[in-house]
Amino acid sequence: MVVRRAMGELVNHGKYAISDPIQYLYFIFDFISKRQFLNKKPYLQDKDDMVRNLFLMRLLHIDKNTVNRIISELYSDKAFIEYVTSSLRGVGRYIGEISSPEILYVVVRKMYPDIIVETGVAAGVSSAFILKALEDNGKGVLYSIDMPNYEVELSKQGVMRYPIAILPEGKEVGFAVPEWLKQRWHLTIGKSQNILTALLSKLGSIDIFLHDSEHTYANMYFEFSTAWQFLRKDGILISHDVSWNRAFSDFARKVKRKAIYMFGSDIGAVRKT
Ligand SMILES: C[S@@+](CC[C@H](N)C(=O)[O-])C[C@H]1O[C@@H](n2cnc3c(N)ncnc32)[C@H](O)[C@@H]1O
Fold first, then answer.
1. pLDDT score of 41
2. Distance between Cα 85 and ligand 1 center (Å)
3. Going by CA atoms, what residue is nearest to atom 20 of ligand 1?
4. What residues are in contact with ligand 1 under a 6 Å CB criterion?
């Protein structure tokens, strides 16, 4: 059963092997690193991770010591790490949480932003790490948009093979976010297609945008191009699950910016230099 599902995933994405071999390579790395079929959790690793460090060094123009120093600061908050980890441990299955959420912490600590917008919350791992960094910075707010359990609908439409990011019974959106970090958080429930443009227009300018909601080509491209208009100069746009389709690479080419990828975590970023 496990092997059949794993093979199905590989074949399903096999078209990339021909049309875009590099993209397929990213997918394979991601597939192996998530190890979701072995029911292992890829998050919250505090080891010196070379792939992670390279990604952050290229994106933020910082050295390895700086990355490791910020990561150490993060992991020194045992209460935070334990809160997020135990929230997810209780679920016992992968529900779409971002791989390597510690990169978000480093980006936010270094960028020192005022306003961050993200789409796709579910358990709220990405939100928790962003909010932790804002708190440690002592400034900034996070606006999140989420349509809980929408992947049931997407899989009925054939967009996904099966829903992944489904909230456990009795749990609310953002259940992995510690209460003590919620004062900088503005969560809106609804589809990003209906909410994002108005939210960004209200905010005017943002420092960081993170996509982790509906990974269809149309929605990803819509979110990237809409957020880009409001992203300040030198701001950063990050996307999870960039191997699902070519929206991220097409977008980076369109705006003529270098796409920086993180192998194994299926993350891509562009900086509005
Ligand atoms: C992959 S999960 C987000 C994981 C989260 N970033 C984390 O790190 O824990 C995706 C979430 O986006 C929601 N979603 C899917 N399509 C959406 C849409 N069109 N608009 C808003 N949210 C959507 C899903 O229901 C789910 O809650």
1. 46
2. 19
3. 191
4. 96-98, 119-126, 145-151, 165, 191-193, 212-214, 219
Q: What CATH fold (topology level) applies to the domain 42-271?
A: Rossmann fold (3.40.50)
With 50 as the cut, is the pLDDT of residue 126 above it? yes
CA pseudo-torsion sign 130, 94, 51, 15? negative
Say how many Å lie between the CA of residue 146 and the centre of ligand 1: 6
What are the boundaries of each domain within the chain?
42-271
Per-residue pLDDT tens for 44-59?
554 557 778 889 999 9
Task: Say if CB 154 and CB 163 are below 8 A apart.
Answer: yes
> What distance in Å separates the CA atoms of residue 105 and residue 71, rounded to the nearest whole number?
8
List pLDDT tens digits, range 200-215.
999 999 999 999 999 9
Q: Closest Cα to residue 151, out of 35, 241, 265?
A: 241
Q: What is the pTM of this model?
A: 0.88
